[in-house]
């Protein structure tokens, strides 16, 4: 079973880093901004089902926003990423979810990741507000750190499980 997942979120929140850590167990402190979307495959088992996830990394900078539908239109799941040290990046997640619901409805499985939890001391996004929002849109939330390899397998396992069950 082949499943397509798209990583969405503001520039610099850590989408490329999440992908590289999850698929190749690599991390770069000076990861460059993505200018062109690309994907990596990862095999994953969900119970007795073997799935191949094609995880698409997209460019987060605002000037690329209009390209979004090209990548999410036929996706089975979306991982919406924000940076816990950047309040604006969480507002951007809310904007993405509105857009996804409008264009692809509830067909697509959505999971939200609060990345860079290794920088907890610089947190700018209020946790209670995040949890309330996630509940209101029925999306699961995970804390992740691509840098320290925290929460990523949990996050993708959950996404895969929901996509397989759909
Ligand atoms: P765009 O390509 O512009 O959309 O950015 P992106 O969302 O793909 O972010 P990227 O992975 O390029 O990471 C941006 C910066 O944040 C890089 O310098 C990364 O090293 C850093 N970074 C990514 N994840 C983490 C993390 O979990 N913790 C910390 N401390 N830094 C991180």
UniProtKB/TrEMBL annotation:
Q: Which organism is it from?
A: Tetraparma gracilis
**Ranges in coiled-coil conformation:** none
Q: Does the keyword Signal apply?
A: no
The annotated topology with respect to the bilayer is: Lipid-anchor
Query: What name does the UniProt record give this protein?
Result: Ras-related protein Rab-21
Query: In which domain of life is the source organism classified?
Result: Eukaryota
Shown part of the complete sequence = 1 to 166 of 204
Major place of localization? membrane
Q: Which family does it belong to?
A: Belongs to the small GTPase superfamily. Rab family.
Q: Which UniProt keywords apply?
A: GTP-binding, Lipoprotein, Membrane, Nucleotide-binding, Prenylation, Protein transport, Transport
Q: Where in the cell is it found?
A: Endomembrane system
């Amino acid at each position: 079973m082949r499943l397509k997942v798209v990583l969405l979120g503001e520039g610099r929140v850590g989408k490329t880093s999440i992908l590289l850590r999850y698929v190749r167990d690599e991390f770069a402190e000076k990861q460059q901004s993505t200018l062109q979307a690309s994907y990596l495959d990862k095999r994953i088992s969900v119970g007795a089902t073997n799935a191949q996830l094609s995880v698409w990394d997209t460019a987060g900078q605002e000037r690329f926003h209009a390209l979004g539908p090209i990548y999410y239109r036929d996706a089975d799941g979306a991982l919406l990423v924000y940076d816990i040290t950047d309040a604006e990046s969480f507002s951007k997640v809310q904007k993405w979810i509105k857009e996804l619901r409008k264009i692809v409805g509830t067909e697509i499985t959505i999971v939200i990741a609060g990345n860079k939890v290794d920088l907890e001391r610089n947190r700018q996004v209020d946790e209670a507000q995040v949890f309330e929002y996630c509940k209101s849109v029925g999306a699961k939330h995970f804390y992740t750190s691509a840098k320290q390899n925290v929460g990523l397998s949990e996050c993708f396992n959950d996404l895969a499980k929901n996509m397989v069950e759909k």
